[in-house]
Amino acid sequence: MTTPTGRHVRRAVAACASLALTAAALAGCSGGQDSWAADLPDELTIATGGTTGIYYGYGQALAEVLEDRYGIDVEVLETGGSVDNLHLLDDGAADVAFTAADALEDAVAGRGDFDAPVDVQALARVYDDFGHLVVPAGSDVEEIADLRGLRVSTGAPRSGTALITERVLAASGVDAADLQVSELGITESIDALRAGTIDAFFWSGGLRTPGLVELSQEVPLRLVPLEGVVDQLRVQHGDGYRHGVVPEGVYGSAADVETLAVPNVLVVPGGMSEDAAYGLVATLFAHRATLAGQVPSAALLDRTRSVYTTPVDLHAGALRYYRDTKV
């Protein structure tokens, strides 16, 4: 069985009732009038990512809702990211996982890091990741080719960042052997750039990635454009990749940065019960505002876009939810 990267974070079940609570509070803790609450599982494990990334924050926020509102025992796993999460799901070590669509495509096809197809279905497309090539503001790096000879973190092993980095370098004609490579997750990459032990790092994540926001307040940063590889990536790896823009002001940038983007999908094993999947999707939408209060990317969850989960089908329970809510 795959061992998750990093520590497991066991969240205790929130205590819903006490003698001092009012009847209204008790109704809120038990799920109130949420008709799907009884169909949610008693326990749930969510595979996320590094602690300074959005996957982890999103997973923590969802866990709080499931625990506080419905009394579910939720474990949030700190992991290497997309590829790691899909292995955990396949091995039965996780029930719900965040993943980028490019890693998901490899998983369902049984290629790349996956020896056989993974039986996985989608709850929702949640938000998009944007490719980041992060350097100090004063760096001489202006394009990917300038990385040759430099100390570069290419992402944690079995992460979506590592997968994208490999493809971006290949599309740019840059051999990883020409770099001084470190395979660091987002938290470790941030620490290393802050300490000056690397010159640049790749990251695929949502906007604004919390750890990068914090780093940009300490160290002036710049993002190197990646738009030049997008069309080639689409030809070689499918149209899950698209052109994207990191807006001016994000991480202190002085102008928009043209880059690549890829959707993120919340997935579950194909064998999850229809009612459980329905309840999880209903929870995402019913508590979107609460989730977004902790993770701004959660505000991007949209019933119209969430059904586009290529390269996998929606779980039958998710599809029933969208039909019930007229999407």
Automatic annotation (TrEMBL):
Return any one Pfam family short name.
Answer: NMT1_3
Q: Which UniProt keywords apply?
A: Signal
Origin superkingdom:
Bacteria
Annotated signal peptide = 1-27
Instruction: Kindly give the InterPro entries that the UniProt entry links to this protein.
Output: TRAP_TAXI
What Gene3D superfamilies has UniProt attached to this entry?
Periplasmic binding protein-like II
What's the protein name? NMT1/THI5 like protein
Q: Which species is this record about? A: Isoptericola dokdonensis DS-3
